[in-house]
Design a protein that fits this description.
This protein is of the alpha/beta class. The chain has nine helices and five strands, in the order βαβααααβαβααβα.
């Protein structure tokens, strides 16, 4: 096993329902390093003054309409976008966390760290819609919405958010080390394969 200090920061971007948290937790156990997803919200709130509710709602998703109004209103010097403020707060937390090996799920972390020239191993998880809808049903986060429409909505908002703040699509392969179809194998096997790839990349760094 590669020495922990040689393991780079690992980022996981993903389609909704493709197993980002599951893979992050498994890799965390493999490398004995922390992983950040929902607890990232509390860290951002503590350092920014935004509420956890605002960060949870706006911290990784942006609708096409929201992007338009954000652009229009940001032309006014008197306007301060909460989306922009939360993005900057999250960016600072990401850069702080990257001071030591860890796993960060979502929030454009791969783009932010590459721009800052921080060594990073970037993963993108995807899967067919039927697989993701089934997992979304298990997560039960869709409220009163049709589950399929909810999955598609979250995917669209995440990609819009990513394009707005990084000028890249969320699945831009030029900024990723590996794209994995999470539906092809059991999650534990996906995690094992990714861990081997990360160890190999660390050994040849």
């Amino acid at each position: 096993m590669a020495a922990v200090e040689k393991i780079p920061v690992i980022t996981i971007s993903r389609q909704y329902g493709a197993g980002g948290r599951t893979i992050a937790k498994a890799l965390s156990q493999s490398f004995d390093i922390p992983w950040y997803d929902r607890d990232f919200v509390a860290k951002t709130a503590a350092s920014s003054g935004y509420s956890e509710e605002d960060i949870q709602r706006e911290g990784e998703q942006l609708s096409a309409g929201g992007r338009f109004w954000n652009s229009v209103l940001n032309n006014s010097a008197a306007y301060a976008s909460s989306h922009d403020g939360i993005f900057q707060a999250q960016k600072k937390v990401i850069l702080d966390l990257a001071g030591s090996p860890c796993i960060i799920v979502g929030r454009c972390a791969n783009f932010i760290l590459r721009e800052a020239q921080v060594p990073v191993f970037s993963i993108f998880l995807y899967a067919d819609l039927a697989f993701r809808v089934k997992r979304a049903e298990e997560l039960a986060e869709y409220g009163d919405m049709d589950v399929k429409k909810y999955v598609e909505k979250v995917d669209a908002q995440r990609d819009t958010y990513c394009r707005y703040y990084t000028k890249h699509a969320i699945d831009d392969v030029s900024c990723l080390d590996v794209c994995l179809n999470a539906a092809r194998l059991p999650m534990e096997e996906n995690a094992r394969i990714l861990a081997e790839m990360i160890r190999s990349a660390a050994a040849h760094a």
